[in-house]
Amino acid sequence: MITVNKELCRGCLACVRVCPFTVLQAEGKMPELKEGKVCLKCMHCAAACPASAISFGDREAVLDQELPRLSEGFKEELEHHIMTRRSYRHFKETPVSREEIQHALELASWAPSAKNQHPAKWMVVDSKDTIEAMMQAILEYVKETGTSPEIASEYEEEGNNVVMGTAPILILCYARNNAINSPQDVAIAMSTAELLLQARGIGTCWAGYLTRLCNAVPKLQELLPELPENNSFYGAFMAGYPEGETYLHIPQRLKRADIQWV
């Protein structure tokens, strides 16, 4: 639970104003915890406190660093980054360091999440042998069941792996099925990680086939660590350094935002 150091507190009540569930209330000019209220542990209060008077139990509630200032051109740069982001399916064999991947996935901890639950958990496959075994399990499954036959035909007739491309890394994201908003929370976390990865020169592609098959193919599941009970895969990426894909223009979007103002 959050605690307020009354000796440091200036009585500005910024923490009370930003608390999303009115866990804090004003008692005179000092913030107090309301009885019976459940703290979301979002740390909005601590982030807004000019006196650094708020902690979370025996832990610091904010990072020990200066608040970064965005450059004047950041708005335009961010817009350009979003518009020039591409899905890559062809990759170099050059490995991406685990530190690079971990950094991006750690950053996703700051993505928005329903009720601050952050249910997204990660499984990173960077073993070439495991990736090949996963693909063979998928091919066996689609041939036996008739599911998505284009996976086998593209792979065997065209040499095109529509499930995982030539990716040296597969990033799988799973979550509790009974979390408030697992599908959306995972998508937001993955989008956050992807934008950082691509900004650092690491190509990605959302792997929808792989997500569905990881939940459906028993032999594929045997190749991966067992998920906790009542958990499922909600998303997957191919990842690696792009090869043979150079894009010189921003593609047109034939479907634009459908907006109604009310």
How do the strands and helices of this protein lay out in sequence?
Blueprint: E1 2-4, H1 14-18, E2 24-27, E3 30-33, H2 44-48, E4 54-56, E5 59-60, H3 74-84, H4 98-107, E6 121-125, H5 128-145, H6 150-157, E7 169-176, H7 182-199, E8 203-206, H8 208-216, H9 218-222, E9 231-240
Antiparallel strand pairs: 1-4, 2-3, 4-5, 6-7, 7-9, 8-9
Helix pairs in contact: 4-7
Low-confidence runs of at least 5 consecutive residues: none
CATH topology-level fold name of the largest domain = NADH Oxidase
CATH structural class of the largest domain:
Alpha Beta
Q: Kindly state the mean pLDDT as a whole number? A: 95
CATH superfamily name of the largest domain? NADH Oxidase
Order of helices and strands: EHEEHEEHHEHHEHEHHE
* Helicity, as a percent range: 25-40%
Give the number of domains. Answer: 2
β content, as a range?
15-25%
Radius of gyration: 23 Å
Number of helices: 9
Number of strands: 9
**How far apart are the first and last residues' alpha carbons, in Å?**
40 Å
- SSE class: alpha+beta
- From the 3D coordinates, which CATH architecture of the largest domain would you assign? 3-Layer(aba) Sandwich
What general form does the structure show? elongated
Question: In this structure, how is the largest beta sheet organized?
Answer: 4 strands, antiparallel
Across the major sheet, the strand order is: 6-7-9-8
